Amino acid sequence: MASSSIHQDINVAQIAADIVCEFLEVAFHQILYIRQVYPAGIFQRRKKYNIPVQMSCHPDVTRYLQDTLQTIRPLVGRGEVDKVVLNVTDRQARPLERFVFEVTPPVQPSVNDDSYLLRLEQALRAFVLKINVCDSMLDTLPQDVTFSVHVYTQDSAAASLEQQQLVQNFPWVEADSDSLKMPNARIIPLKTMTSNVIKMQLYVEEGDKTGR
Amino acid sequence: MSRPRRRRGSEDGWGGEGMRGYMAAKKRKLDEQFETDAPNQVQKEGTRSNIFNGVVIYVNGWTDPPADELRRLMQVHGGRYDVYPSRSHTTHVIASNLPDRKIKDIKDKKVVQPQWITDSIKAGCLLSHVPYMLYRRDHAQGSLNFRSLTRTSTTVINDDEASMDEDSDGDPDGVRPIDGVRPTDGVRPIPTGSPGNSLHGDDSLLTSVTSSDDNASLTHNKSSFKRSEKEASSSFHGDDTHAPSNYGNSTRGDGTSSLTSQAQNLSKPVVTSPSGKKPMGSSKDANFVAEFYDNSRLHHLSTWRTDFQAYVNVLQGKGDNGFPGRQRLCDHLQSRPEATTDDNIISFPETDRFTPESKTQQLGKVVMHLDMDCFFVSVGLRNHPELRGKPVAVTHSKGKGHEQRIRPGMDPGYERAYWEKRPPHRHSVKHVTDNTEDNATGGNHPRDTYMSFSEIASCSYEARKAGVKNGMFMGPALKLCPDLKTIPYDFEGYKEVAQQMYDILASYTHEIEAVSCDEAFVDVTDILTDTGATPDDLASVLRQEIFEKTHCPASVGLASSILLARMATKKAKPNGQFYLPPEDVLDFVSPQMVRELPGVGRSLESRLKVIGVATCGDLQKVPLPTLQKEFGPKTGQALHRSCRGQDDRQLKVERERKSVSAEINYGIRFTKDTEAETFMYNLAEEVQRRLQKAGLKGKTVTVKVMARKADAPVEPSKFMGHGICDSLSKSSTLGLATDDPKVIGKEAWNVLSQMKLPPSDLRGLGIQMTRLVSASGASSSSASNKSIMDFVKAKPATTMQQSITNNVVHSSGNIPETEVGGSVVNKKTMLDFLKPSTITEHIRKETSLDGTLGTSDIDVSETQGSTAKKTPKRGGLPPLPNLPTFKTPKAGVPVLGRINEGASSSHEDLYLPSPSQVDPSVLAALPTDIRQQIEQTYASRNLPLRYDAEEDTEACNNEKPTGIDQSFLDALPPDLRKEIEEEQLQKVASEITMSNRTKGKEPSKPGSHQLPTYNDVAAAVCTTEDRGHSLLVHANDGRDCNSLVDRETHNMLQSPEPVAGPSHEGRTKKRSDSGPIVALPDLNKIDPTCLDALPPELQQELKRAYAQQQKQQPVQQQQQRPNQPQDALKLLGQSKGRPSPPKAKRKYTRRKPLNNSPSKRKGTAASPGKKRLSPQKLTWNQTRDNVATTSTTEPAETPVAPAGEPAPVEAAVSTCDTPEQVQQVNLCGRVELTEVKDLLKEWTHTCPVPEEEDVEQFVQYLHQLILDRNLETVDLLIKYIKRLSNELKTSAWGSAVEEIINSVQGVMEQLYGSKLKVT
């Protein structure tokens, strides 16, 4: 295959990790905006994937997201991340909505069929757009909410995360079960994409907000 | 004032010393103020005296009169006043009341009540401060019984102290003959006749001393090293010229034996001395260390200083109950007021006698330095009066020397070259010059090989005149002084004499600083004030008394400071006394060599020599700035002062022990590591003996190693000596202070092995313990070692007590196992143990023990007796899995702490772990008695503990139809249990519905209702674990499963498996191997996630087993996607041996039944109630059905490999999927969402009643989508079909859709833990 030889030296997994983390950052900001976790005032409109997206310009929020993704990037590269969850919680850290990004490494990672990643970009764009409309599928959140990012990974990966701390002073802790349990949760699938670079789906676990 | 950090640069304006510089400047300024202010005060007062000359006070706390007043008084009366306490300057601390902490801080100072000053002023003279002492020193170290000073146990403080003995004996003066022979122990007295006939005596003497000297010289190797240096250099060079005379001299012994080597002598059968039994004791010998110290007695000498210091401390602690010596002195003065008692008194004529009052003012402080004259010799001569007046040396050698036999590996030439290269020693300067001549003349004379490596410990002044020096080797000494007689060591005598000397001193005063066994500084100011005697009177009386009691001469120097007193003694020697009046200091000091000054060693001496300074007079001419520039501010200052005789050091009456060590550099020859290891442990025992004797524990273990220099000969010239070595040391700090020999030994061995030295190169090993704390008082160490548990765990004392009682009751059987010999410190009785306070104490220890690695059993062994010892362990260590280590405490205990660490950090229950923490297999493996004990303890606390759960797991599995061992469940934490129960209920429910539903179709197999519960439970656990802990089991990742199950056993579960992961698999495997039909669980009992977690080969095996079980049933091959949790049945389906490609559907075969056989659908239309399917079941049936209906399977398309292609059903939106992919999730070949939708539309529109098969197929498709992580499509399709069915408004479709949704929700629940939101 002549075309494959061109990309042989490219580490697809690494590219995929970069793309995923980049996308997650965009998506997280977008979710925070859409779900009104933070007031719209702290967001700026930027362009990504050729569509307008909202990005928080609050330094702490931005920093947190950046650090989070920075630390999990190697894990994503090794395919050790199972899910990345944006956990929207109330003040008592009880989860209200969980935006679950299931990331699976494709079976045959290659970029041959999408050399310029155009289709990938389309897919990601579709993701973002879907996030933009997820509001309509979800119940409104209470006023006072916050969020956290969870990563589902293996024990060994978690250990390596601790060992090779890329970002100083940004340690990961094991999530306590309270922040994971949502009674009567319903899953709202949002988006799925499959490519030879990334295989990813996004769904929202929505807790029973009325019960609270 | 904390010690400030030294800063670089001088930008801070204090000479680059930062805070220190500032403080120094401040002190200086305060001093100046004091000085300048003094005349004013004097003027104001109108009087002036010099009462307090030399007294420097520091006022601590509130006093009456206040500090200001005291300061004024001191100004007026000639004293000094320190605003900041100084260790070296301050003489007295004035205080009315001191807290204990401050007392400890300033314990080496005299703490005096302010009345001392006022009373002194009233009396017009300096009164003795003793009655005014604020406290006695009875809080000091415990008493030291000299009688118990045995040969075997000694304490070494600092090795280099030994050199002081030698130095003090090294003064070239005569010795006085003394009468009186005392038999020595262990050594035969030398016959008093002519030396020539004393062969036998010489031999025994030689042997007995040889080993001891060797050993001892090695013990304090620094001094011996130094000595051997100079010895060697002189001996090698002096050989040629002096050899003949040596041979002539050897007639004194026996002509034939004169040439025999020491070694031969040592091994001679004639030898009768105690050390002769095993003269060549090898270091490999287990008893080597003990024997070494049994035989080596010279090392006592270095330790005696400590003992005498301790003795002095004890005396001081007792307070002054009158000093009989002072009375004697007064009597003496009255009887012979004018006489000088000794002709040897050198006294300056202008020294007038004063009346007591005026004299103290004149004299000020007077320090006496008392030194026995060539101590070893004079003590030895008590037994050999015939040798008085002759040159005598104390050594182990007979003095004949020997022809050097070259042992294999020896290279005398190398060593000689080495010694020559060393800088010349001050004693050997002369010899070096001699030697150059020798070399020129003698060349390579055969006598070159003559040498004796026995050192002269001390020699008489007669011998010194001949040029013999202390520390010389015997060979060269004999050359210098052919008449040199040798006498053996007399350790008992030394001890006795030293003791007497100190007793005498103590009868005068307690202001004694013990320097060594024969040397002491005494502050005699008080005595002189009290008795009104002159220094000379005192000295002569004292010397007389010493001589009478010990028959040994002593020299005394008196001066105003330690430095000058020492110099004065030099002048007084031999057997004299010298008082240096303050006004003659400069004259006296000027001719002294700089070498005599404190702090001036060889290197500083040579540096001084470079700038042309040899004597103190020279040094006085060097200005201070020059000195400071040359040698640094401090050294320069010190030199500047000391060369003028200024020395404000105070007597150090009390010193704290800094280290305890044991070191052996003799006879170390190892061949294997294990030998070295054993040796370390033996040495550690010696250290322990010493620590215990001193009542201390050490925290830092320093290993000192002498390793053969890389190019040094394998065998040194000295028999079994260490030769030329590199000295290395390395230390390691333990978590807790200890005196446990095992801990010390282990640590020492660790350190040693880290050095990676070949065992054969080891020549000397030593263990030193530093950072000492008192063994008895946890108080002294408690501040640093306090554990948090102290504060937290005070309350549960009652439960502790209970558990401890239980343990104690049962522990008797195991006592011998846990007993660690030797440590008897603080043995506690059982009763002690039951007191809550002690319990908490032990807990504290226990917990801190957990936290600190490596030292776990120290505390226990030390603070508790044998019985008590194991109790807190049992009780205190949370994780019972570690219990087996009790069986081997000797070997395993230090590791214990490590093992426990993780678990113990989180224990809520201090004494017993929660039952779920108990690994049943471990428990089961325990000896019965221990197990009973644990059970009973648990029982007493109403906690269920099922150690036997595991044993019976297998049986239970087959017996209990419910599938889960109830006991196992009980042992689970409540939340987990609940979850499993739910799981189980669900399963049972689904099983029932399934069996109802499939009654007609599928005859239930005999095995299907037998529930081998292990898999169920494990599966349940897997899923709960999955949910609860954010862990996801990846298919085919056995490792993952291991860690998962591992965790569960470790953290929360009483798992039925002792070693969870592997044996989990192993168990399953075993089952499938042994009897697949009988033991196989029903298919839908298997949790897919669990199955997925198994390694591929195991999966294969299981599948095969199932295939066997159901081989008559045709099954359609399902594709396998290893990377995702998958329905177990699909995996299993693959193994059925029928390669049935998933592509079957691509043939669109399914469409025909859909479209063309409505009758079929009708027939199978079932009641909705019955259609509530368990997902697995549905899948199962679906697959069968599919295969049955698809006859056009293509064998070519074989089942996909485990790492096969993904099977994405790509939603229409996601355009980047690859259309050419063959194994996509499809519905009858439809992959794209729109296609599928079309199909569904067609289906619903064509069929008024959905056929069950079709429904199943659709559900199957949805399941695949879910597994393919394509929830979006699932969602869309469900919504779509719902909409379609709503359009149709038929109950059949409605129920069908409901069934579909239920099924999907079931799968969702299983995989994601929640259901889809279907509106």
Automatic annotation (TrEMBL), chain A:
SUPFAM superfamilies: The spindle assembly checkpoint protein mad2 (SSF56019)
PROSITE patterns in the cross-refs: HORMA
Domain HORMA stretches: 14-204
Name the UniProt record assigns to this protein: Mitotic spindle assembly checkpoint protein MAD2B
Alphabetic keyword roster: DNA damage, Nucleus
InterPro entries in the record: HORMA_dom, HORMA_dom_sf, Mad2-like
Originating gene: MAD2L2
GO-annotated cellular components: nucleus; zeta DNA polymerase complex
Subcellular location: Nucleus
Keyword Nucleus listed: yes
Principal location: nucleus
Source organism superkingdom: Eukaryota
A biological-process GO annotation: DNA damage response
UniProtKB/TrEMBL annotation, chain B:
Record-listed Mg(2+) binding positions: 371, 518-519
UniProt feature, compositional bias: Basic and acidic residues: 226-242, 400-412
GO molecular function: damaged DNA binding; deoxycytidyl transferase activity; DNA-directed DNA polymerase activity; metal ion binding
Main location: nucleus
Places the protein is found: Nucleus
Compositional bias annotation for Acidic residues: 158-172
Cited CDD domains: BRCT_Rev1, PolY_Rev1, Rev1_C, Rev1_UBM2
InterPro entries attached to this UniProt entry: BRCT_dom, BRCT_dom_sf, DNA/RNA_pol_sf, DNA_pol_Y-fam_lit_finger_sf, DNA_pol_Y-fam_little_finger, HUWE1/Rev1_UBM, IMS_HHH_1, REV1
Cofactor stoichiometry and binding remark: Binds 2 magnesium ions.
GO cellular component: nucleus
Class in the EC hierarchy, top level: transferase
Role: Deoxycytidyl transferase involved in DNA repair. Transfers a dCMP residue from dCTP to the 3'-end of a DNA primer in a template-dependent reaction. May assist in the first step in the bypass of abasic lesions by the insertion of a nucleotide opposite the lesion. Required for normal induction of mutations by physical and chemical agents.
Record protein name field: DNA repair protein REV1
Organism name: Branchiostoma lanceolatum
Gene name of the encoded protein: REV1
